[in-house]
Write a structure and sequence with these properties.
By secondary structure, the chain is an alpha/beta fold. It has helices at about 15, 20-25, 40-50, 105-110, 115-120, 150-155; strands at about 1-5, 30, 50-55, 70-75, 75-80, 85-90, 90-95, 100, 125-130, 160-165, 180, 185-190, 190-195. The chain has one domain (about 1-195): 4-Layer Sandwich (Purple Acid Phosphatase, chain A, domain 2), CATH 3.60.21. It has 6 helices and 13 strands. The strands form 3 sheets. A 6-stranded mixed sheet has the order 5-6-9-10-12-11, with helices on one face. The chain is globular, with a radius of gyration of 16 Å. It starts with a strand and ends with a strand.
Length: about 200
């Protein structure tokens, strides 16, 4: 399954650049890890003509009144696309009381609500989040700290991929985006990144 992940930065070249359009020709799925305009997701969904799943970032304030058309929010849910099980968690660490900000305790409770689904259906193949796991790709300021509960989730369920946004970083080489933690590949999706499951 070929997947395009996007986060935090609009990349018009995905729609304009011929080489990138060819890379998108056999795409199966788009996942958005937050902080992108809903209109951008609508455009990606319709022009690339594949399912698009998303969660919300800490700056996604217009989604309630103007959600992306034809796309599916999977915050706090597990869905299956082409035999690939995908879980999603929105938001960042709490830092100023804005929308889509959560304390560690609140995120732990959100994850706990999926316990029965995880027991019944097994571990997800892919997890999409906005914030990263704590001490992997995160930073030390209150806004950009990752969640410890994500580390516990990875250790317990061992998804093949854990894709996040929120951490703005330019990558000279796409391998710099990826950190292996046990059997899970943790990937910073800033801008865009292609991968296959």
């Amino acid at each position: 399954m070929k997947i395009l992940s996007v986060a935090d930065k609009v990349a018009p070249e995905l729609l304009d650049d011929q080489e990138l359009r060819e890379r998108c020709s056999d795409l199966d799925l788009i996942v958005s890890c937050g902080d992108l305009p809903p209109e951008y997701l609508t455009t990606l969904r319709h022009q690339l003509d594949v399912p698009l799943l998303y969660i919300l970032g800490n700056h996604d304030l217009r989604y309630a009144s103007s959600p992306p058309h034809g796309c599916q929010c999977i915050d706090g849910k597990i869905v299956t696309i082409d035999n690939c099980s995908i879980a999603g968690f929105s938001g960042s660490r709490w830092y100023n009381g804005g929308m889509n900000q959560y304390t560690e305790k609140q995120m732990s409770k959100t994850i706990a609500r999926l316990r029965f689904s995880l027991w019944r259906n097994g571990s997800p193949d892919l997890v999409i989040t906005h914030a990263p796991p704590r001490h992997i790709h995160d930073a030390e300021d209150p806004c950009h700290k990752g969640f410890r509960s994500y580390i516990k989730f990875i250790e317990k369920y061992q998804p093949a991929y854990f894709i996040h946004g929120h951490i703005h970083k330019q990558f000279a080489d796409d391998q710099e985006r990826i950190t292996a933690y046990n059997s899970t590949k943790i990937i910073n999706a800033y801008g865009f990144y292609f991968f296959e499951t």
